[in-house]
From TrEMBL:
The keyword Cytoplasm applies. Its EC number is 6.1.1.7. It comes from the Bacteria. Consists of three domains; the N-terminal catalytic domain, the editing domain and the C-terminal C-Ala domain. The editing domain removes incorrectly charged amino acids, while the C-Ala domain, along with tRNA(Ala), serves as a bridge to cooperatively bring together the editing and aminoacylation centers thus stimulating deacylation of misacylated tRNAs. This is Alanine--tRNA ligase. Signal peptide: none annotated. The keyword RNA-binding applies. PROSITE patterns: AA_TRNA_LIGASE_II_ALA. Pfam families: DHHA1, tRNA-synt_2c, tRNA_SAD.
Amino acid sequence: MTSQQIRKQFLDYFKEKGHLIVPSAPIVLKDDPTLMFSNSGMTQFKDYFLGYKQPKAPRIADTQKCLRVSGKHNDLDDVGRDTYHHTMFEMLGNWSFGDYFKKEAIAFAWELLTEVYKIPKENLYVTIFEGDASENLERDQDAYDYWKSHIDESRIINGNKKDNFWEMGESGPCGPCSEIHVDLRSDEEKALVPGIDLINNDHPQVVEIWNNVFMEFNRKADGSLEKLPSQHVDTGMGFERLCMALQGKKSNYDTDVFTPLIAKVEELSGKKYTGILEDEKDIAIRVVVDHIRAVAFAIADGQLPSNGGAGYVIRRILRRAISYSYRFLGMKEPFLFELVAVLKKEMGEFFPELVKQEKLVTEVIKEEETSFLKTIEHGLKRIDLIINETLSRNEKTLPGAEVFELYDTYGFPADLSRIIAEEKNLTVDEKGFDEEMEKQKQRSKKSSAQKVHDWVILEEKQEVFVGYDQTEVETYITRYRKIENKDGEFYQIVLSKSPFYPEGGGQIGDKGILIPSYTEGFDIANPDVFDITNCSEIVEVLETRKENNLIVSLIKDLPKDAGAVFYAKVNTTDRKNTQANHSVTHLLHEALREVLGTHVEQKGSFVGPDYLRFDFSHFSKMSDEELKLVEEKVNTKIKENIALQEFRNIPIAEAMEKGAMALFGEKYGDTVRMIQFGTSRELCGGTHVKSTGEIGYFKIQNESSTAAGIRRIEAISGDKSAEYFQNLELQIKEISALLKSKDLAKSVEKLMEENSALKSEVESLKKEKAKGETANWKNDFTESGDKKLLVKKVSMDAGSVKDIVFQLKKEVENSVIIILSDADGKPMITVGVSQDLEANYHAGNIVKDLAKEIQGGGGGNPGFATAGGKNLDGIENAYQKALAL
């Protein structure tokens, strides 16, 4: 049975059992502040379990792309070294939201595994929760009793809280779970050691295959448990492990989930995969075929490699694959990008994003490979320098801090540093390296640490967003909670009616104010007549975000009466400019597709009151003509003053039929909001102008590259575009006054000609002066036998020093010249060695040694070298050191 058939059979089975089959959610999470990636099958259903949203159906089944590479669930370091850990994996799942519970879930699992997939019953074991006295939790007797009707009691095992009580995180829905394990060993191995003794002991052929979680409780922030109002089922079966079991393999990598990728790596690298666990070549191949899946799916879902956040994680995974292939497969040129076509062929039927985004994924991976291979080459030169400096000190241990800097700052793999050191019979100061790594972790932890307290519920109410229609409203707080982070203590509040737009879709969240109704002199029925200038009762809304379908506004201090009625008002100046920038991104998107082609798709955006940023797929720099045409097209639409057409709750199928643009990597519901300005139609939840004329004017300020195949436009509109032209006019007037001319181009051209003539004159004078200095300095050499040394401190510019050094090298035999300059307050060292001494003295090595004194670096060839630095006071030490030469 192929992996495609196995996946299809699972979905068909649960469809027959009344489950709605839904597509996998994006692997990258954009609307969940607690997670970067979908790390389990239940992630996309969190809001259902928390009661913030109603599910599409009471029974759902799917296959979900998951990524476990950060935080609590991190399998990255295990990948490649065993047969079953992965970064990206598929989780097959069936879900019940307040419908069936333990009895039916257990029956479905048993029937599918033994009757449909035909796994021998004698190869299966199950675990149940044994209870936990410290939590006052009893043994899961119901699960035990239901399992007894399917499997022999000797195969039902008690499991502890660690293995058999599933929790979403430190807080949230949780409950006992029942795992199903399969024993894939030979009969001979089973006769020697019973399978029951190997459950949850990390045996590669006795593995957990399916977990049935019974959601009964909610874990509060204070650690206590409370019963959920309704009970749910959340199951997850590892697709790769299931394929291993059904295809009779001993490793996930031997299944057809991975073998086509492995075959391609063998073809490209010329290395044969044998499947040996300890073989570094085989480990590298496993790392490559695992990591390419994770990276490809993440990019297809809209997450590009970058230096921060989720993008950094993706870059790290990709670089780990490149590093392994460089070291153990001898791959010195990009090749991972060629695996994308294989991945698309094998998985494109179930995951159409791979088909749609194949070119983008391929180009991004190729560019990242090319860049990192250059980093490795640069790192090899840097590690050689560290090794040479270590040997020059007659030491055998590379400084841990320097190896860490190479890893942290330059991205050079620490393992590669260790291997190179070992080849030179050296070691790395592991303690020093670990100390630096721990410091970095602590810095990162400190910057992101946040303690979140439980919600204080003032009223159970369905909160609503009214910000599309109102920017001020009478409201009250339904719940609040305290949070503590590096910036201090704050409160998050949820309003019964909120006019504040929560950050999302690239648009920043609204700021504004809350005025309590008890404020002296304030009439909530006539808020506009109240002077807020010196009112101490006003509560400032610092930001607004969305979390678990709640609109959460951040304030510094809780009002003295949190249960009062409030007047909420959005900062309308910022809102007006922000929505102008948001609306113009829609017009920009359409114009880019018209000018560059329909391959253009939005790949990210930022929309604030001061400017907009728009990332899109395109594989070359835009020309000035293209940028001008795009700008003209957008401004034409603005001048036409096209009215907004808003479809607030339109079925997604109908929106797509109307030609709405949907973005890959975004999660859409059955009904969506469509924004239309003439022929521009997009699915969007942001706030917008009522007509394009409100935008004013659109001005592109910059076009650049952010990654392979991704371009970025930065632009302004609204008040900022008006300010831009006002400032431009003012600058022209000031320049015109300075030049005493209205023909600025002609005046500047004349100035440039005069400047060029003066520069030539200055250079000539410098050369004349240098000739004079050369004659004077010939008398300042110190002789040692037949060798001559000149060390001088000067305040001359680099060009003049260079001219003198080259002249002296040519005219003074057997000479070494060292010039230390402090021109413009910057230390610089220049070293020259006459040709007849180059075999004995290397200018590059001399300058590197002296540059340490000025906290700098540099280099050159045996005859000439320079170095700059940061420490001007170090010139004297460098001078004394040079004299000792």
